[in-house]
């Protein structure tokens, strides 16, 4: 009998579980059906299902039921069921917030605000309850009242620093620039490690110079009130950088460094930012400040080296005056005098030799300097290889091709299947091209088409196509040899001689196939000379007259780059980047053009 009773009880449980599971399964199916009705634009059918489920299981389906009522503008029904739940659960604020939402959608803002204001008035001085209520407002997409809850919570808790993280996130979400700025400026003095986070937040929210001016005004006001607070000075320097007011940024940083009497670390880091932005004069001034602190400071030698490197960058970027060249040469010589010619200063010997060879055209001095450099003991293998390659180039310019090819071949042998080794092969191939040995050059370039270095592979392919196309039109290669001589003068940075030869090709060989090549060479010379209008004219001519030839996509991309970065015409730049995407999908520039186009269109940098 006992066994029978136990079995009957077990059977009852099984039946209950089965029925309950069946009911849940049926409800899940009905929910899926309701979602499908909504997706198909049949909200009334979905409402009927939600209403049925709400009556069966009451509050579990309240949210989807009431939102469907609101979508169908059945405000009275939504009010009635919500009022019942408010009476049933007076301490559960989600129903009061939903009632406010109902009034809002109905257009009755006064009633909605009255409900929300009552919630704020009855707010207890309890951090957990304050956070919970604000979270409910946030989840109902009512950001403004979530902020008011936190602000009232600060008053109740008598703590102006409470809920800082929450408010910062809400201001960011709302893109409330003024409030976000004030919140961070209040927060940072006690939490200086968050300055990078603040800068990132400002970068994402600020939209132009007016916003950065607002930050500057706020910072200057706070600095005047509390001049000892360095975090505001640091942030002001950052603000100047965003506005590209590099001179002001440096002045601000120098004033802070002098006040703190530090070792110049912050200035050293700032100079790297200047260099990235090609603000070479400011970087030079910054390094000179560090050097002026004396030889005993830890950054004296690094600053002295970086000072010279920056001056070199200024020269190689074309942003220099003629007297800058001799000043830079003197700086290098002074460095070598102070620290000697050894493995530690070999990099300076290499840079000085390049300056002498390609800017000052002192080929003999440059050759002697690099010959001394490659004889140094303990020089790093990669630096030794670079010195040999540069010395090979100078031998080539000094009309010593055999010595040049010997050095290129040594590097190729010492660094097989590496970027340095492939660079050596490419220089050997270019030497053959310069000297008119196109057959040998083609053999080397054909191998480099699949080089691991993308840059070398691209350059090798372009040179190979140049040779092949022109030999197909003129098997003797007479015009191409003349063009190669002009190319060598461009390499040697003798633009006047190069242009003279380029202009002579058409006269001597009127039916040559080098028209677009000549225009491309001239346009590159004009860019180096900062004659952007002249370069644009030639590049447009390449695109119009040779749209399917070797340099067409290069010309289009270069036009985009000039308009974007030199002529400050973003709209025109965008059209050329788009032309690469639409007209030249196989171009080597496609990825860079796509990235720049999206940035100019206003996409976020990480957009895919």
TrEMBL record:
Domain of life: Bacteria
Keywords: Repeat, TPR repeat
Claim: Repeat is one of the keywords in the record: yes
Gene3D superfamilies: Tetratricopeptide repeat domain
SUPFAM superfamilies: TPR-like
UniProt entry tagged with the keyword Repeat: yes
PANTHER family: LIPOPOLYSACCHARIDE ASSEMBLY PROTEIN B, TPR REPEAT-CONTAINING PROTEIN PA4667
Protein name: Tetratricopeptide repeat-containing protein
């Amino acid at each position: 009998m006992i066994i029978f009773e136990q079995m009957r009880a077990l059977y009852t449980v099984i039946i209950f579980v089965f029925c309950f599971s069946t009911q849940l399964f049926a409800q899940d199916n009905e929910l899926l059906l309701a979602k499908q009705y909504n997706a198909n634009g049949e909200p009334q059918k979905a409402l009927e299902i939600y209403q049925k489920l709400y009556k069966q299981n009451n509050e579990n389906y309240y949210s989807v039921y009431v939102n469907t009522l609101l979508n169908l503008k059945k405000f009275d029904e939504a009010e009635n069921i919500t009022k019942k739940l408010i009476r049933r659960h007076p301490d559960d604020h989600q129903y009061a917030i939903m009632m406010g939402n109902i009034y809002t959608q109905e257009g009755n803002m006064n009633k909605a605000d009255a409900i929300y204001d009552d919630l704020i008035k009855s707010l207890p001085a309890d951090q957990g309850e304050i956070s919970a209520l604000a979270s409910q407002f946030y989840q109902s997409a009512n950001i403004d009242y979530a902020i008011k809850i936190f602000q009232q919570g600060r008053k109740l808790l008598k703590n102006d620093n409470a809920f800082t993280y929450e408010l910062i996130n809400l201001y960011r979400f709302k893109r409330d620039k003024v409030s976000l700025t004030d919140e961070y400026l209040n927060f940072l003095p006690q939490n200086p490690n968050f300055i990078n986070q603040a800068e990132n937040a400002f970068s994402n929210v600020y939209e132009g110079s007016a916003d950065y001016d607002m930050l500057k005004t706020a910072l200057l006001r706070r600095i005047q009130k509390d001049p000892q607070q360095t975090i505001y000075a640091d942030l002001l320097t950052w603000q100047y950088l965003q506005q590209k007011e590099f001179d002001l940024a440096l002045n601000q940083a120098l004033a802070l460094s002098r006040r703190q009497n530090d070792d110049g670390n912050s200035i050293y880091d700032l100079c790297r930012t200047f260099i990235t932005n090609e603000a070479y004069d400011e970087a030079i001034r910054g390094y000179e400040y560090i050097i002026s602190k004396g030889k005993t400071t830890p950054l004296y030698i690094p600053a002295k080296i970086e000072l010279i490197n920056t001056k070199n960058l200024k020269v190689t970027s074309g942003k220099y005056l003629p007297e800058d060249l001799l000043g830079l040469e003197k700086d290098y010589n002074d460095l070598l005098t102070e620290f000697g010619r050894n493995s530690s200063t070999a990099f300076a010997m290499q840079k000085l030799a390049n300056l002498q060879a390609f800017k000052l055209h002192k080929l003999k001095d440059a050759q002697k300097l690099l010959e001394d450099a490659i004889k140094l003991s303990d020089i790093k293998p990669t630096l030794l290889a670079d010195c040999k390659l540069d010395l090979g180039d100078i031998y080539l310019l000094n009309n010593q091709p055999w010595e040049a090819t010997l050095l290129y071949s040594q590097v190729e042998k010492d660094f097989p299947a590496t970027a340095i080794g492939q660079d050596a092969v490419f220089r050997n191939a270019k030497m053959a091209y310069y000297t008119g040995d196109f057959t040998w050059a083609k053999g080397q370039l054909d191998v480099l088409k699949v080089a691991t270095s993308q840059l070398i592979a691209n350059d090798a392919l372009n040179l190979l196509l140049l040779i092949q196309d022109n030999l197909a039109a003129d098997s003797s290669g007479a015009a191409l040899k003349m063009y190669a001589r002009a190319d060598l003068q461009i390499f040697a940075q003798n633009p006047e001689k190069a242009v003279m030869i380029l202009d002579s090709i058409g006269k001597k060989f009127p039916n040559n196939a080098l028209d677009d090549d000549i225009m491309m060479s001239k346009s590159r010379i004009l860019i180096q000379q900062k004659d952007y209008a002249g370069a644009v004219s030639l590049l447009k001519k390449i695109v119009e007259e040779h749209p399917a030839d070797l340099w067409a996509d290069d010309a289009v991309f270069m036009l985009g780059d000039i308009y974007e970065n030199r002529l400050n015409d973003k709209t025109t730049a965008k059209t050329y980047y788009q032309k690469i995407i639409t007209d030249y999908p196989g171009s080597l520039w496609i990825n860079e053009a796509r990235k720049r186009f999206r940035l100019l269109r206003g996409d976020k940098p990480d957009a895919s």
